[in-house]
Amino acid sequence: MIVRKGPALAGLFFTLLLAPFATVGSNTQKLSAEAQQDFRAFVETFAPQVLRFERRGANYRWHSSNRDCAGLVRYLFWEAMQQHDERFLDHYAKMRALSNVSLRRSLGPIVREWQRDNLTAGQLISHTMRISHSAQPQRLKTGDLLYFYSPELKIRHVMLIIRSGAAVLAVYHTGDSRGELRIRTLDDLNALPDAQWHIQPQNPVFQGVFRPRFLD
């Protein structure tokens, strides 16, 4: 069930030296087509598992200090780039059916770029490219990020897109003391009472859709 609450602001107050859309690592190598497919399949399968286990406080290797909106994205991406041991596969049994061998062969400098820092929401965006000012479902792919930014309101917030068949869903961490993970449809976001979370180009807080540079 989706609870209709706006994303919390706590934990989103970052003072960055970077401009909101600074382009770092613009020469980032793209994953091969097969590796991109593996990456997206992993994230699509793993994200619902993380949401389910989080209700019991039982997510593996996700430290409490990293539980915010950017931390969720980093965690999902980081695990997609790992070779997993039996402990991980016992914990998340549904992940056994996936092989990410082609993905790990392609990673190289991509791993270093995405894993070297405890990236904030704004810094995550600096490793992406904006693909659209509006969230058009037919253009969205797993791994895309919805970014909300307002210096006046002290908001920097990121949501992750995952596809499940024809459905397009946004997954995010509230970043506040509730520490909740949520999953919503795009229509759900646009129906929130607080318009600052609407994914529409007329919303000045919504900065658009961003895609990691290693993905097409």
The average pLDDT is: 80
* Uncertain regions spanning at least 5 consecutive residues: 1-25
**What is the helix tally?**
7
Taking Cα atoms only, what radius of gyration do you get, to the nearest Å? 16 Å
Strand portion: 15-25%
CATH architecture verdict: Alpha-Beta Complex
Largest sheet: 6 strands, antiparallel
Question: Span between N and C termini?
Answer: 32 Å
Write down the domain tally: 1
* CATH third-level topology: endopeptidase fold (from Nostoc punctiforme)
Bulk shape: globular
Helix content: 25-40%
- Can you write the helix and strand succession as a string? HHHHHHEEEEEHE
CATH superfamily: endopeptidase domain like (from Nostoc punctiforme)
Q: Give, in spatial order, the strands making up the sheet with the most strands.
A: 1-6-2-3-4-5
- Sheet/helix structural class: alpha+beta
CATH class: Alpha Beta
Count of β-strands: 6
Explain what this protein looks like in three dimensions:
The protein is an alpha+beta fold. It has seven helices and six strands. The protein has a single domain, classed as endopeptidase domain like (from Nostoc punctiforme) (endopeptidase fold (from Nostoc punctiforme)), CATH 3.90.1720.10. The protein has helices at residues 33-54, 69-80, 86-91, 101-106, 109-115, 121-125, 186-190; strands at residues 128-132, 145-150, 155-164, 167-173, 181-185, 206-212. Strands 1-6-2-3-4-5 form a six-stranded antiparallel β-sheet. The longest helix has 22 residues, at 33-54. The protein starts with 32 loop residues before the first helix and ends with a strand.
